[in-house]
């Protein structure tokens, strides 16, 4: 008998090889596993849609962060400092109205989603608060690395690539 729960989306845990790779200091990463790391990140469009040289930049400069449920990653009003790609888990995007302090849930982000880029691109403060809804595993890039990869004049990605952000 057909059971639709067999086809229900399950949470995705990243492989230990990916986690361990991004926990290594940037100058000491073992690049012998780089093709396997690329395969593990193939479904993450902000990574896989980039040309190989830009993927290599991410593989060298990004680092791994993990948050338990209920942790605030970005707070509304903070200066933009980092760009985040969700590897596993989910995060809640909220907006707090200044007039009456009402907090509104805007979206739920999951694997492959990004956040933090709008503040970097516009050189402004964060518009939303991002909180981990579940255990959340992230790839993180500093603002300058994000700009070099996604916004540089000599970048290899097209305007279509940027619309995924």
From TrEMBL:
InterPro entries: cNMP-bd_CS (IPR018488), cNMP-bd_dom (IPR000595), cNMP-bd_dom_sf (IPR018490), RmlC-like_jellyroll (IPR014710). Coiled coil: none annotated. Gene3D superfamilies: Jelly Rolls. SMART domains: cNMP. Residues 46-165 form the Cyclic nucleotide-binding domain. Signal peptide: none annotated. This is Cyclic nucleotide-binding domain-containing protein. It comes from Adineta steineri.
